[in-house]
Specification:
A hairpin with a 3-residue loop joins strand 1 and strand 2 (56-58). The radius of gyration is 30 Å and the shape is elongated. It has helices at residues 3-11, 21-31, 37-45, 61-69, 128-142, 162-177, 186-193, 195-211, 238-247, 251-268, 284-295, 299-306, 319-331, and strands at residues 49-52, 56-58, 88-90, 92-93, 100-103, 112-114, 122-125, 216-221, 224-229, 234-235, 273-279, 311-317, 335-338. The protein has three domains: 3-154, SMI1/KNR4-like (3-Layer(aba) Sandwich), CATH 3.40.1580.10; 194-268, no CATH class; 273-338, Ribosomal protein L7/L12, C-terminal domain/Adaptor protein ClpS (Ribosomal Protein L30, Chain: A, 2-Layer Sandwich). The relative contact order is 0.07. The chain is of the alpha+beta class.
Length: 339
């Protein structure tokens, strides 16, 4: 008994009419997707099947073709904005247009991805058998009061197989060779599959930044670890840093420079600066005019202010605003400090 027949037996569902070898070949010709061995075995056992009416079905080859190419009723799957490198085969329909897909490209062949029409895709299972078993286990425990996002994925913990590592390295190589893929799901998937390597990389980054006197912590989430500067207010782009570390021999210097730029940018946008007028210089009237315009003061108030120095003109403002005021006053001949 095949894996898929056993699955249908556990689900107490009868298979539909199996697809023929000719139907599979026609599908592959029309869509440009070559079915993985497990997908082919599935469709030769049952050409789609409704697992629960109005809740979940494995789509027939005809429906998958419609989903991929689009028609008058629905837009083509390409409009989900996913990379074309992984050869997504939309397997399930949960009536929310968020299909679970099987990757048919050799880089990630057989892995299972949950795609969303209005969100980021998730890499969820290593193979089709694990995905179907997760469905059967869930149904046996709680019935049908759940959706696909409630299934326990294969990649929540840090355990990775050798095949996961090889797949992650292959995906990272795609990113290194084609920077356009950096903005797709390929980079996050690679980081997910290389979880152990990424953990070691993060620890190495902590050491490099500590030597440079930059305070750094690690924030861990379901998607993996992230570098946080200054106790968390500033996050480093861990994904880009990791891919960069593989292709740049001067990475340690680049890491420190990027961390300092990130902190500088945070500080520039933080409302924590004061503008202090220390000397009005020789052009007293021009300085008074700038002070009046900056603080919306009358002539008397501005005169009193510039005659009692040093004076804080503005407090708790962003650095960009503080520098603008400083430049205006200095152009008028005054001396100004920013603290």
């Amino acid at each position: 008994m095949s894996v898929f027949v056993q699955f249908l037996d556990r689900m107490k569902v009868s298979p539909s009419v199996p697809a023929t070898e000719e139907a599979v070949a026609t599908f592959e010709s029309r869509t440009g997707l070559m079915l993985t061995p497990s997908l082919k075995d599935l469709y030769l056992a049952t050409d789609g099947v409704v697992l629960r009416k109005d809740l979940l079905e494995i789509m027939s080859l005809a429906k998958v073709t419609q989903f991929l190419l689009g028609d008058e009723a629905c837009a083509p799957f390409t409009e989900y904005g996913l990379s074309t490198r992984l050869g997504y085969f939309p397997l399930t329909e949960s009536f929310e247009s968020n299909p679970v897909c099987v990757c048919c490209d050799d880089v990630l062949e057989g892995y299972i991805v949950h795609a969303f029409h209005d969100g980021e895709p998730n890499l969820v299972f290593r193979n089709l058998e694990n995905f179907l078993n997760a469905i059967a286990d869930k149904v046996s425990r709680v019935g049908w009061d759940w959706d696909l996002q409630d299934l326990q994925p294969d990649f929540e913990d840090d355990f990775r197989t050798d095949a996961d590592t090889l797949a992650g390295q292959a995906l990272m190589q795609v990113v290194i060779e084609n920077h356009a893929e950096r903005d797709t799901e390929i980079l996050p998937f690679s980081m997910q599959l290389l979880r152990g390597h990424v953990n070691d990389f993060i620890e190495n980054c902590l050491g490099i930044l500590a030597k440079a006197g930059i305070k750094t912590t690690i924030h861990r989430s379901r998607k993996g670890p992230f570098l946080c500067l200054d106790d968390g207010p500033v996050w480093m782009d861990t994904e880009s840093l990791y891919s960069q570390s593989l292709s740049d021999t001067n990475f340690a210097t680049i890491l420190v420079e990027q961390a300092r730029r990130s902190l500088d940018e945070r500080n520039r946008n933080k409302a924590q600066f004061s503008v202090i007028l220390t000397d009005i210089g020789a052009n007293r009237l021009e300085v008074m005019k700038v002070v009046r315009d900056t603080l919306a003061l009358g002539l008397k108030e501005a005169k009193e202010l510039v005659e009692s120095l040093p004076r804080t003109l503005k407090d708790n403002i962003r650095l960009v605003e503080a520098e603008k005021i400083k430049h205006k006053l200095e152009d008028s001949g005054a001396k100004v400090e920013i603290k």
